[in-house]
Description:
The protein is α+β, with helices and mostly antiparallel strands. Helix content is about 25%, strand content about 25%. It has one domain.
Amino acid sequence: MYLYRVVRNKYLYDLSGAGSKLFGGRWNSPGIPTLYTSASKSLAVLESLTNTPPAILQNDFSILILEIAGKILTDEFHEKDLPKNWKTYPAPVNLAKLGDKWLLARKKLLLKVPSVIIPSEFNFIINPLHEDIRKVKITATEKLELDGRVAGNIK
């Protein structure tokens, strides 16, 4: 299985979840580490564009390609089972609490969740506290290069 993540270059090889531990996210509260990834490169970029201006992404970020070898059991949160406000911004606290409970249980390495941006596509939460984190390998990195129409510098 391959997963994709857009990452600031200076943190490219950090799989500790330190950034989300500091600030929290839709699926975790501050103080609890996690890694946010997507099932495709394009979704990873789109997710990043919702939080970071294109000019910054263009200059200081790369795409991290992760491979998880072997059979990995995955949990999944289905849209129908999530709170009605799961797509709101800022993310509802009850959603982070749901993710916290999953992360702290440490039962599985991966949690498949629908994307807020495109609910029929999926993001994967990686639990860096799970014993199988050692199965997550960085297979490649690519400098993030956005088309000028996306980056805002049309020429």
